[in-house]
């Protein structure tokens, strides 16, 4: 159709009311249902005939996305609505009751003014005046039909018909409603326009609004439409966002899904059917911030909740949390002593005036945990705890000026004087120390550190490493976590904290905030809480930098590709690149090499041999002939033992090993396991440990020539283990260790002693959690992530592989995370 034909058809389709914000998709669906009826088809044919439009050019139906049932739920915040002529019915006298909407909490509204170039809301003036009369902040919106005229033309049409703006603090910026095409006959959901055409149209509209009113428009849209029809454009990330996102029936949403380019939202349309007339919306901030937004005054919005950990507020021996929600209500979350929190109890209102909360501990020295709060005007307030999960009336303890700090941290008694202290970090990375006076007030500040701008989050974690001095945990933008161990020394530049020490794995940027929560699982060690942007909590139990498991949480490092291997071994660095590798044999007898990547994973296997199905065991024995390259031992089905000297090179023409040499006569079939255990006896040569089905263990001392030496029995009872694996120097004491998995799923370490009298291995020590029976093989030794510590690999029957990074029993100071609820 031509533009003129589209405009003519649009006027007929618009009728008296035109489209309604948020109803584009619904209107498409309803029209699709109507056109299934012969009468509707006849009516459309007549319309097209009158307009002299070829029936075939009216775009065929497109498949619509199913609509979601709506609920009457509303999120916390300043409530509002949007209306159009759809909310007016002269025949029945139905109209928007503005007093009633105000009574039920609505404080702002967007009123439809225009659509395309062919529709003006006949009730715009009435609705706009009604909202103004009750005191609402109000604005106008335009429903875009971009395939019938230019963005410039529609912007001018909007402004000329009531869609302007003024900086009076009562008028919201002009709103562009760009969403699903509501008119099935005018094209697909994207108006038969390409993403680049849609983006260009929005830019044209926006530039004209800015030129006419002095302000960019806000954009109303939905994430899914934006993705499909703009190609996830990020060109408008600086524009105010009015986003549509409805929860499924019976559910709520913590926050809306955002279109590409935006990281936050101003207004959220959360329901098309109540609790307010028209569509229901919520403003992302306070009422004062809404007026600032309307006036286009620069304001720093305090959109997120604030959470602090003051200590044991209700005197039950468990540390608690307080959270300030965006609506200003303050809530108490009692700690449950198991890392989580009980049901929240509201303990105050009006706290939206504060932009920071600090759990200050017993800041006034009376044994009840207290709270510090920074007002939006920069003043510091002290709230004394009562010991009954509440606070006394606030007292101003600091004049304006505290807004200079990007972070305020209740860090504990940093200088060892028995009183709780406060740290403030500026955006330039300068840190100031405020000694506590034990009265609820701060002493004279001292510059304590510089360069801390490298961290994007800081948390006071009390004594995290068990040395008696309070510490901090700091996160860098790359997601790494660092411990700043307190020294307990008087404050002076560089003296309060030791050198940063990296702790934890990567990925900590997933959390919106980190919070030291003291000992919330009652194990005598201080813990850490991660708060996700959606309010979920992740609890990390502190270990005081000592790890009973000897390993970090597992990481999947392979798909199901290891299912086809009957034997897998870890020979160490087999190709000379200083990374630990794997070798596996398939059922067809082919031998495969998987090069380590130094990160716990491996490259795709490459074939390095055939005919290996004659062997019943393959063993990585390290540098068994003392030539600087790692070697293999293989036990043939007839019980003979064969040595394959490694070459240190695996290429397309080199298999990585020399021709085999027989190094043991028949008889090796008596052993259920052969282990390349490292230098067990401390003579500087690689040894072999062999286990019999009766549980006896035998040491074959290495000779450094590729052949096993004379054997000696070194113990019994090894049949208690379902599987035993060589672990190298797993605990960092420079002796070779073994790990054993039992049938009940427990994992045990037998630390090497180097002493024949002690049986070469110490008594078993349980490590790791339970559940190890899920693995069909354990693989070691090898430093698979190149961090200087021996690691462990495990495979399941389905062929998936998991990597456990060794810690030498000193770790990140954190046990594996656990879900701890939601704020």
Automatic annotation (TrEMBL):
Function noted in UniProt: This enzyme has both lysozyme (acetylmuramidase) and diacetylmuramidase activities.
Is the Disulfide bond keyword given for this protein? yes
Q: Where does it localize?
A: Secreted
Give the protein family.
Belongs to the glycosyl hydrolase 25 family.
Residue ranges that the Swiss-Prot or TrEMBL entry lists as coiled coil: none
One Pfam family this sequence matches: FG-GAP_3
Q: Which reaction does it catalyse?
A: Hydrolysis of (1->4)-beta-linkages between N-acetylmuramic acid and N-acetyl-D-glucosamine residues in a peptidoglycan and between N-acetyl-D-glucosamine residues in chitodextrins
Provide the top EC class: hydrolase
- Its name, as the record gives it, is lysozyme
Q: Which UniProt keywords are given for this protein, alphabetically ordered?
A: Antimicrobial, Bacteriolytic enzyme, Disulfide bond, Glycosidase, Hydrolase, Secreted, Signal
> Which organism is the protein's source?
Arthrobacter crystallopoietes BAB-32
Task: State any single GO MF term.
Answer: lysozyme activity
């Amino acid at each position: 159709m031509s533009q003129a034909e589209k405009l003519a058809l649009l006027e007929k389709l618009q009728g008296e009311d035109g489209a309604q914000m948020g109803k584009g998709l619904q209107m498409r669906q309803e029209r699709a249902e109507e056109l299934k009826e012969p009468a509707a088809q006849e009516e459309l044919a007549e319309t097209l005939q009158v307009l002299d439009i070829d029936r075939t050019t009216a775009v065929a139906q497109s498949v619509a996305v199913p609509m979601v049932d709506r609920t009457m739920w509303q999120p916390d915040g300043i409530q509002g609505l949007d209306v159009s002529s759809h909310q007016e019915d002269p025949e029945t006298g139905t109209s928007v009751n503005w007093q009633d909407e105000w009574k039920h909490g609505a404080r702002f509204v967007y009123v439809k003014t225009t659509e395309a170039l062919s529709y003006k809301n006949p009730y715009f003036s009435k609705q706009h005046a009604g909202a103004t009369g009750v005191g609402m902040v109000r604005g106008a919106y335009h429903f875009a039909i971009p395939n019938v005229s230019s963005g410039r033309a529609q912007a001018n049409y909007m402004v000329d018909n009531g869609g302007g703006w003024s900086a009076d603090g009562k008028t919201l910026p002009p709103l562009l409603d760009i969403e699903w095409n509501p008119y099935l006959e005018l094209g697909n959901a994207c108006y038969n326009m390409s993403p680049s055409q849609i983006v260009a149209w929005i830019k044209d509209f926006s530039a004209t609004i800015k030129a006419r009113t002095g302000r960019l428009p806000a954009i109303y849209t939905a994430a899914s439409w934006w993705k499909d029809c703009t190609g996830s454009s990020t060109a408008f990330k600086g524009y105010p966002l009015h986003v549509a996102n409805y929860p499924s029936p019976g559910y709520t949403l913590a926050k809306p899904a955002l279109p590409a380019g935006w990281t936050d939202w101003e207004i959220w349309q959360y329901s098309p059917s109540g609790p307010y007339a028209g569509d229901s919306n919520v403003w992302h901030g306070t009422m004062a911030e809404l007026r600032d937004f309307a006036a286009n005054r620069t304001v720093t919005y305090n959109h997120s909740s604030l959470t602090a950990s003051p200590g044991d507020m209700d005197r039950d021996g468990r540390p608690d949390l307080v959270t300030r929600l965006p609506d200003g209500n303050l809530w108490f979350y009692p700690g449950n002593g198991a890392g989580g929190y009980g049901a929240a109890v509201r303990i105050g209102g009006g706290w939206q005036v504060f932009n920071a909360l600090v759990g200050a501990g017993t800041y006034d020295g009376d044994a009840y945990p207290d709270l510090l709060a920074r007002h939006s005007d920069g003043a510091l307030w002290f709230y004394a705890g009562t010991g009954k999960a509440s606070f006394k009336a606030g007292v101003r303890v600091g004049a304006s000026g505290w807004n200079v700090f990007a972070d305020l941290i209740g860090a504990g008694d940093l200088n060892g004087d028995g009183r709780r202290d406060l740290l403030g970090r500026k955006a330039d990375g300068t840190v100031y120390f405020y000694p506590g006076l034990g009265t609820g007030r701060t002493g004279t500040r001292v510059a304590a550190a510089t360069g801390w701008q490298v961290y994007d989050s800081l948390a006071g974690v009390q004594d995290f490493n068990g040395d008696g001095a309070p510490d901090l945990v700091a996160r860098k933008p790359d997601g790494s976590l660092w411990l700043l161990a307190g020294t307990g020394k008087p404050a002076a530049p560089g003296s309060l904290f030791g050198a940063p020490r990296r702790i934890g794995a990567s990925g900590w940027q997933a959390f919106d905030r980190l919070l030291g929560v003291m000992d919330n699982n009652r194990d005598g060690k201080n813990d850490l809480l991660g708060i996700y942007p959606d309010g979920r909590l992740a609890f990390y139990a502190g270990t005081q930098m000592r790890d009973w498991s000897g390993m970090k949480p597992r990481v999947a490092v392979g798909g199901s590709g290891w299912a086809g291997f009957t034997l897998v071994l870890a020979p160490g660095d087999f190709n000379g690149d200083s990374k630990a590798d794997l070798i596996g044999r398939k059922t067809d007898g082919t031998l495969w090499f998987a090069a380590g990547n130094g990160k716990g994973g491996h490259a795709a296997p490459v074939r390095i041999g055939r005919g290996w199905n004659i062997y019943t065991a393959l063993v990585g024995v390290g540098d068994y002939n003392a030539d600087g390259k790692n070697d293999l031992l293989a036990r043939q089905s007839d019980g003979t033992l064969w040595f394959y000297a490694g070459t240190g090179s695996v290429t397309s023409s080199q298999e990585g090993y020399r021709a085999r040499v027989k190094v043991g006569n028949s008889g090796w079939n008596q052993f259920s396991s052969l282990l390349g255990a490292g230098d067990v006896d401390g003579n500087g040569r690689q040894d072999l440990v062999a286990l019999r089905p009766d549980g006896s263990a035998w040491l074959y001392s290495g000779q450094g020539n590729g052949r096993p030496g004379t054997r000696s029995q070194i113990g019994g009872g090894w049949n208690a283990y379902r599987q035993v694996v060589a672990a190298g120097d797993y605990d960092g004491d420079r002796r070779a260790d073994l790990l054993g998995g039992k049938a009940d799923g427990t994992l045990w370490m037998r630390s090497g002693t180097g002493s024949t009298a002690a049986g070469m291995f110490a008594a078993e020590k349980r490590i790791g959690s339970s559940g190890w029976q899920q693995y069909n093989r354990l693989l070691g030794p090898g430093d698979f992530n190149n961090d200087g510590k021996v690691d462990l690999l495990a495979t399941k029957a389905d062929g998936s592989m998991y990597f456990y990074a060794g810690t030498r029993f000193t770790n990140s100071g954190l046990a594996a995370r656990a879900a701890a609820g939601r704020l």
